[in-house]
Amino acid sequence: MSSATWPLKAIAFSKLSKADADMKRAKPEKLAPRSATAVDGYIGARMREQRLALEMSQEQLGGVSFQQIQKYENGKNRVSAERLFGICKALNVPLSSMFERDPTR
């Protein structure tokens, strides 16, 4: 085998522009979690209305802590479809009862 030597070439590195440097330092934007909306507040109010009509405590609603039920009822947290279905079963109401009118009007 012959020992071939490759010619070495100098590689020129250009300086980063200020914009490039700023971009490297910038942290990627984090997506905001889905925040509660007027619809979530309406659903929460309907949950509370039905729970109180049944004289049921937040603890008795079951499945989650009473603090989480408070957040749902105050419209601070969104209720997943699965959780809402379970809550409707516990309240003995059809799922459609949570959407009887347009909450955005």
3D architecture notes:
By secondary structure, the protein is mainly α. The chain has a domain at 38-98: lambda repressor-like DNA-binding domains (434 Repressor (Amino-terminal Domain)), CATH 1.10.260.40. It is 45% helix and 0% strand. The chain has helices spanning 18-25, 38-53, 58-61, 66-73, 81-91. It is elongated.
CA-atom Rg in angstroms: 29 Å
CATH architecture of the domain at 38-98: Orthogonal Bundle
Mean pLDDT: 80
The name of the CATH topology of the domain at 38-98 is 434 Repressor (Amino-terminal Domain)
Structural class: mainly alpha
Shape from CA axes? elongated
Q: In the CATH hierarchy, what is the superfamily of the domain at 38-98? A: lambda repressor-like DNA-binding domains
- Percent helix, as a range, is 40-55%
- What is the number of helices? 5
User: Distance between termini?
Assistant: 84 Å
> What is the beta-strand fraction?
under 5%
The sequence of SSEs as H and E is HHHHH
Number of strands: 0
Biggest pleated-sheet summary: none
Q: Please identify the top-level CATH class of the domain at 38-98.
A: Mainly Alpha
Layout: helices, strands, pairs:
Blueprint lengths: L17 H8 L12 H16 L4 H4 L4 H8 L7 H11 L14
Task: Provide a brief overview of the structure.
With 105 residues, the protein is mainly α.
